[in-house]
Amino acid sequence: MKVEARSHPRLVVGLDENYELVDTYYRCGKFQCPGNQEPTVQPLNPHVGAKLEYDFDVLTKVVELRWQHALTYEKIVEKMKKDYNVLINHSAVENALKLYEIGCAEKYKPEYIAEIQRFGGIILTIDAMKPLNGERALYVARDHRTGITLGSRLLPNQKQSTIEDFLRAVAFRVHEELGVPILGIVSDALPSQRMAIAAVFPDVPHCLCHYHFFNLVLLSPKKGDSHLVTQIRKQLRDAYDIKKFKESKDSKTQYTSDNKFIVKVLETLLALSNWSRKPKDPFFTGLELWKRVNDVASVVNAACSSIGQDTFNQNEEKIIKRVNDNLTSIIDEYRELAGDLMQVRNWLKELQETLSDDASTPSEALESLQLIRDKAKKRSKVKAIGKKEQDFCEALVKFVDTKGELLFNFKTIDGAPRTNNSHELFYKQLKHLLRKVIGFAAASSFILGHGERIVYVKPSDPPEKIAEIFRNMDLEAARKTIASERKARDLIIYVMHDEEKWNEEIKELNKILHDLKER
Q: How far, in Å, CA of 201 to CA of 313, rounded?
């Protein structure tokens, strides 16, 4: 190889100091060698990438500040200036992060391939996340065992054909790049998604997520339970004595009565007025709240029997009567809905026993589920049935009739999960991290712009691994990828939040209008 050319010196910004760099280009020096006609080559520089203004130390520090120290773009710019005297703008920060995302996608493939090949195949989990309501869904396919992301794409719509295109790309990667079979697929029960999976993977067992099954058949009861929580809390907060008691606590003054019983009752009801679901609560948390109001009401009702017996003074008796009337009104108003939800909860016990039975075969489990379906079909025809229970029974019958057998396919695949909750948790952790870094509102927009690659990032990577990713990645290809996406990311959704760009947008609209009028 001989030196074919050298570039003019260019300034490179380093973490500790700036320096000039000359790029050297080589080509074969033998006259008759075919390489003599090939394009020149440039050896990799361990400190800075070709055509990059900042060296790898600067890029590594930007990534570290973002993912390990949870700094916003603004804070990264400030800290780089303050601690390292490096001037870097938002655009350069974003490009550094995009390069890193692409590098992560390249980096972690080989180690996962080895583990997947040892296992002998993929258990594919597929799910979609909508960062913003009404916007495109980010579809991600992952291997259940390793957690490797096998495909991620922002889909323009939820049509079956669109999902099929995404799944074919995933199938190509698994079969051609990894060289292993797909042993099973776990997803929710969306019709277009289910049909797309059947079209692309006709011979692969499809396992429907149990968690999504319960969510689907319990859609109406869950809405009723949510309504129960909202209304009971509202009525408790509006109750005269609870409101006055809260005001006295806030102002640190004594309520009208200092009777221990009354204070305890009002303290308990005030706490119930702020009821919210906790992780260990039963499924229907509104029903639990209604039952707790009943528990307090039974004690208050017993206290009412002591009225006129000198147990309480006249003012305390008035308080007890008012509280009793309020609680009785709440209980009576929602008794029918609570009873309806209790019936649904009884159905859940049977369903959970069937779905969690590890000893049954797929056919035995399906037969047991079909028996529950038959009972639900008969129950839905009863005249006295409540609306929420009827909705549940009808949804259960429809689900079992159309796709019930898919709930038990996981039993045929060694290591397959009942749910894709690990996939859901991965999403939640990603969103939580982003919201911690850049705020709740901005996180969703960031996922829309970076979602297809951000899923590959490992936030715990130390600086040396970050630098290694930059050194070993194909920076030229990454730059081309970023450049090709720039137009797509400059959508109105982002423009409308940038006042300067928004003004340009309005100016362009006015110009278009003006040109039309002048024609």
A: 76
Instruction: Kindly give, in sequence order, each residue whose CB lies less than 8 Å from that of residue 129, ignoring residues fewer than 6 positions away.
Output: 137, 138, 140, 427, 431, 447, 451
CA 165 to chain centre: 23
137-143 and 122-129: which strand pairing? antiparallel
Asked if 394 and 367 sit in the same domain, the reply is yes
The model's pTM is 0.63
Using one digit for the tens of pLDDT, what is the confidence trace for 96-109?
A: 988 998 888 777 66
Domain identity same for 226 and 326? yes
Q: Same structural domain for residues 270 and 382?
A: yes
262 with 244, same domain: the answer is yes
Q: What are the pLDDT digits (tens) for 282-314?
A: 678 899 899 999 999 999 998 888 888 888 888
Question: pLDDT confidence of 456, banded at 50, 70, 90?
Answer: low
Number of H helices, E strands in the chain: 21, 9
| Residue span of the structural domain in which 492 resides | 477-519
Backbone φ and ψ of 147, nearest 5°: 80, 5
Q: How many domains does the chain divide into?
A: 3
Distance CA 434, CA 424 (A): 16
DSSP run (H or E) holding 480: helix 475-489
How far is residue 332 from each of residues 223, 268, 325, 336, 383, measured CA to CA in Å?
Answer: 20, 20, 11, 8, 22
Helix axes 335-355, 285-304, angle to 10 degrees: 130
Mean pLDDT for the chain? Answer: 83
Among 152, 148, 160, smallest CA distance to 109 is for 148
* Residue whose tokens read 């289910």: 194
Question: For residue 35, is it within any domain?
Answer: no
Nearest to 218 by CA among 345, 337, 372: 345
Cβ 416 vs Cβ 184: under 8 Å:
yes
**CA dihedral for 451, 456, 460, 462, sign (positive or negative):** negative
Question: Each residue of 455-485: b (16+ CB within 10 Å) or e?
Answer: bbbeeebeeeebbbbbbebebeebbeebeee
Q: What is the pLDDT of residues 145-182, one digit of tens each?
A: 877 777 778 888 889 999 999 999 889 888 877 788 99
